[in-house]
Amino acid sequence: MKNYKNLLALVALLALPAAGALAAGGGADLKPSGANINDLGSLQRGAQLFMNYCMGCHSAEYMRYNRLAEDLELGEDMVMKNLIFTDQKIGDPMTIAMSQENAEQWFGKAPPDLSLIGRSRGADWVYNYMLGFYRDANGGWNNTVLENASMPHVFWQLQGIQEPVYKTVEENGVERQVVDHLELVEPGSLSPEAYDDSMRDLAAFIDYLGEPAQLKRKKIGVWVMLYMAFFAFLAYLLKVEYWRDVH
Length: 247
What we know:
The structure is a single chain. By secondary structure, the chain is an alpha+beta fold. The chain has a single domain (about 30-240), classed as Cytochrome Bc1 Complex, Chain D, domain 2 (Orthogonal Bundle), CATH 1.10.760.10. It is built from ten helices and six strands. The strands form three sheets. A two-stranded antiparallel ribbon has the order 1-2. It is globular. Residues about 1-30 have low confidence and may be disordered.
């Protein structure tokens, strides 16, 4: 019985890192993205969106183009022709020409590097953030996930324009207006379903950027867990054999 309890404690301890990773992914109110970094086609489409819409302002300096070409099975020639729009070389990190000083002068704050945003925020957060842009009363852009975000809605031509529908809530005896949901008032070039799929691809790619090694780590992890289970079974049989005469 004591050995059985120790085994349960060991299993619970091994499960803690996985539970912590799930908890770090974002709040419970986020809509699940369904982003899958093992879907190669999704990653490739996400990379195209990232290069065309995000890298004008955001760098991914911890990723190199040749690593991207290898992991996404694109080939260096294809990456050079279709994903690199400057004089950068295939072995260079994914930086942008805009300096931090110019960015702060033009935008008031330099757009952050996106190398680790998928790891720190999670794919669900990225996905919901890209779905949450709406036109506010001042004619500017706001966001339901990150209120008063300084980033403009760079995908508005694809998604269209959403406007908020408000509801009244009471907090500590004070009533205030909050966004209940968003309504599409001006369609974009993509249907809502197609736009959702595109943002799912983008979220998957940004998740991949945060830890490229997870493509191989998760595959290896399955075999490691199978090995541990097999080894534990052998250890149990050995224990039974050693203690047979004692009992």
